[in-house]
Amino acid sequence: MTTKMKTKKIFRSFEIITEFRNIAHSDKNIFLNIPKIASLFFEYQFLSYYFGGVPKWRVMLRKLISKKRIVPNYVMTGPIKSGSSDLVSHLLMHPNIMSPLAKEIDSLNAKQWQSYFPTIKQKQALEAKLDSKVSCGYLEPALHDIQLINKLYDLNPNSKIVITLRDPIDRAFSQWKWEAFLTGKDYINNPSFNNFDDYIKQSISLFPSVPMQTVCGFPVMQTGIYYQAVKLWMDKFGKDNVLVLDIADYFKNRKPVLKEIQTFLDLPDFDIQEYQKIANENPLKVSPAQAETNALLSEFYRPYNKQLFDLIGKQYQWK
Is the model's pTM score more than 0.70? Predict the structure, then answer.
């Protein structure tokens, strides 16, 4: 498979999902979109890589074909809305990286993960072709999931861990924007999602007793506190086996960060070409946060950020 073909396969799932969402948010009569929906649905059934939501028949078929499959030897994780989708997708362009069937596996049952990964025979064939070792990763943005940490350790205690973090103020705004997008046209009439500034004020007033209302399932304030979660990964897999990155550095200049990850994962050096789009980018257009709200968030996260910086031995230029 050429690099261009592999790139198209990696990003196509994101593009189809975005098209579906745009149709759902469109004012156009749904019946006028039926031919487009049918075409996208049919194409979606036969993708080689998914963002998530794999057709069930594909998973069942893979179970029947082979049970002799590899286990991931690296993990890429972080909090939701940390920009990990784009980084993960670009790394998958490396010829020595085999992609799982999906970036996000909708199960905590490790036995069910097996069918999402390449077969041992496929891995051996690619290694013979490249005359070098290949890797495959578990790519779930689930930084705070203790159960997942333990299950991944049981699956492969020698895994290397790449954690991408984002300025918690920017991450909070991105999550609210995502929550608003997921509610569809109704977000304007939903008091929890029609105004970021009010949403954050209420979230802070309720913290830590009551998690703020969420559509995507992650409490907005708690998800921006990284210290304890990063420490859990380090304690489990060893500090030297955990690479912590600020996603802002990646979006400022992708190539140096991709090369740093390649070195960390012992991959052959490869010049990964940048895709012209950002994977899983939210198309919703909204007004920026007020300075007062950013100041509230900055004060809230300051002590937690300090704990994180002390742990990882470096300080990011967050707000």
Answer: yes
